[in-house]
Amino acid sequence: KKLEELLATGDSEANDEAIVTAAAEVANAANSTEDIVLASKSGSLEALVAACAALKQQPPLVVKLLEHVNTILGANATRELFIKAGGVHVVCGLLKEHPQELDLQQIALSTVAAACTKHENNKGAFMGANFAQLVLAALTAHGSNPAALKAACKAIVAVTKNDGVVTVSQVGSFFFSPYL
Questions:
Q1: For every residue of 72-111, which 3-state class applies, written as one string?
Q2: Axis crossing angle, helix 59-73 with helix 13-28, rounded to the nearest 10
Q3: Which residues have C-beta within 8 Å of that of residue 142, sequence separation ≥ 6?
Q4: What average pLDDT does this structure show over 25-39?
Q5: Do residues 118 and 76 make contact, with C-beta atoms less than 8 angstroms apart?
């Protein structure tokens, strides 16, 4: 609630720091998977994504916010909320708008990996948002950095790997293919 109120109050440097502090409180309150799911149901993930969008011109603050987003994305049940909150659009926008910000590129790519692990809708949404071009740009700019390379590879694997999640269309095509 506090985070949402801060987002609604407008721009100021003190307000921006308060947003990051409130985001940390939200994320730190989630000590277990159950707490993370509860935090996501209370709108915390949506508020964190909104904070990332609001502070997109301040990469150091967004890095902190995305760390909290990644904590919440650790629970599989929260990944559907990420796409609904506009997380794909926000993360791809950050990758595109800040190609030279190493820390931001790394955490944004880590967010892609967290959001796409065992979640086909997020995988499709990232691919539809030109993720392939964005990850290539990140590799071009920061490929010599081991941590950036690792984050990019994890994101690529998460987006492209068949991680055992079977979509309804796959089941349908398997069962109905003899009749087609």
A1: HHCCHHHHHHHHHCCHHHHHHHHHHHCCCCHHHHHHHHHH
A2: 20
A3: 102, 105, 106, 148, 149, 152
A4: 59
A5: yes
**CA nearest to 45, candidates 67, 24, 69:** 69
In terms of residues, how long is the chain? 180
Residue 163 is classified by DSSP as: -
pLDDT at 18: 75
In 3-state terms, what secondary structure has residue 98? coil
Q: Encoding tokens for residue 21?
A: 């502090």
C-alpha pair distances (Å), 15 with each of 7, 20, 147, 154, 168: 8, 9, 31, 34, 45
The token pair at 10 is 């407008």
How far apart are alpha carbons 57 and 54 in whole angstroms?
A: 8
Task: Check residue 166 and report its DSSP letter.
Answer: P
Q: What is the pLDDT of residues 105-118, one digit of tens each?
A: 999 999 999 999 98
Helices 120-128 and 87-97 meet at what angle, rounded to 10?
40
132-169 pLDDT, tens digit per residue, is 999 999 999 999 999 999 999 999 999 988 867 655 44
The whole-model pTM stands at 0.80
Task: For residues 81 and 48, give the distance between their C-alpha atoms in angstroms, rounded to a whole number.
Answer: 12
